[in-house]
TrEMBL record:
Coiled coil: none
Domain of life of the source: Bacteria
Domain spans labelled Mycothiol-dependent maleylpyruvate isomerase metal-binding: 19-141
Keyword Isomerase: yes
Protein name: Maleylpyruvate isomerase family mycothiol-dependent enzyme
GO MF terms, alphabetically ordered: isomerase activity; metal ion binding
Cellular compartments per GO CC: plasma membrane
InterPro entries: DinB/YfiT-like, Maleyloyr_isom, MDMPI_C-term_domain, MDMPI_metal-binding
Keywords attached to this entry: Isomerase
């Protein structure tokens, strides 16, 4: 995929390391003293226990990558997960996973050069990626339990940006992304509650972000909603036709985007 036209991520106003701790604490509170055999509709075939195991495993694996300052794609994902011995130990185990992550963050300068599968080859990539893995699965757990989810607006803006900046590099685990090619068609995502404006351009050799300029030609398709709703949309937690979203323009282009951008 051609990512040469995608902007290099700059400093984010979000403290990703602190946000990982805060989001994990919310996740832990959600899954404490509940039935962990509850199905998770956003993750078909998973129970809450599966969701917790996945989220904590990701934190522990990313922590290993950070501690080793990995410089090339890992050949194995084997990590000593130290899984709980009792079924009622998952919430505490997830909290311990965040403790592991905090230790890795403390030992690693965010600006440390590292291998990363996405656009920012530094340690900060992994803290940012860990944050949104944790946040989205916290929301999955809440929705499985019928709890209304709240997402901080600054985190939501950063999460949409993180998704769109890194998506062109995701073909090795999301192969349908390679289908997102075109002849200059554009899709605009705009938040209605503050900053957050992204313009995707599809090209014959791939796609990437263009600067979203006021006064520029109208995009071929556009979607707008709050930053939180856009975050849920791009991650497939909210349908395009949800009442909280507004979309205009080429419906077939939008359908092709969402059929191939699953992360």
């Amino acid at each position: 995929m051609n990512t040469s036209d995608s902007p290099t991520p700059g400093p984010s106003p979000v403290d990703h390391r602190a946000a990982v701790a805060a989001e994990t604490a919310r996740f832990v509170a959600t899954v404490t003293d509940v039935d962990l055999t509850t199905p998770v509709p956003n993750c078909p075939g998973w129970t809450l226990a599966d969701l917790v195991r996945h989220a904590g495993s990701v934190q522990r694996w990313f922590s290993v990558l950070l501690r080793t300052r990995i410089q090339e794609p890992p050949r194995s994902r084997d990590v000593d997960l130290r899984l709980p011995e009792r079924a009622d130990g998952w919430a505490a185990w997830l909290a311990d996973s965040a403790t592991e992550a905090a230790g890795a963050f403390a030992a690693t300068d965010p600006d440390t050069p590292m291998w990363a599968w996405g656009a920012d080859p530094h340690a900060r990539f992994w803290a940012r990626r860990m944050l949104f893995e944790t946040l989205l699965h916290r929301v999955d757990a809440e929705q499985a339990l019928g709890i209304r989810s709240e997402i901080d607006r600054a985190l939501a803006v950063d999460g949409v940006d993180e998704f769109l900046v890194n998506l062109p590099s995701a073909t090795f685990f999301a192969p349908k992304v390679a289908n997102l090619r075109g002849n200059g068609e554009t899709i605009r995502f705009r938040s209605t509650d503050g900053d957050g404006d992204w313009l995707i351009r599809l090209r014959p050799d791939g796609f990437g972000l263009d600067p979203a300029r006021e006064g520029a030609d109208a995009p071929d398709a556009a979607v707008q909603g709050t930053a939180a709703d856009l975050l849920l949309l791009v991650y497939g937690r909210l349908p395009l036709d949800a009442a909280v979203l507004e979309h205009t323009g080429d419906r077939e282009l939008l359908a092709r985007w969402f059929a191939n951008s699953e992360f």
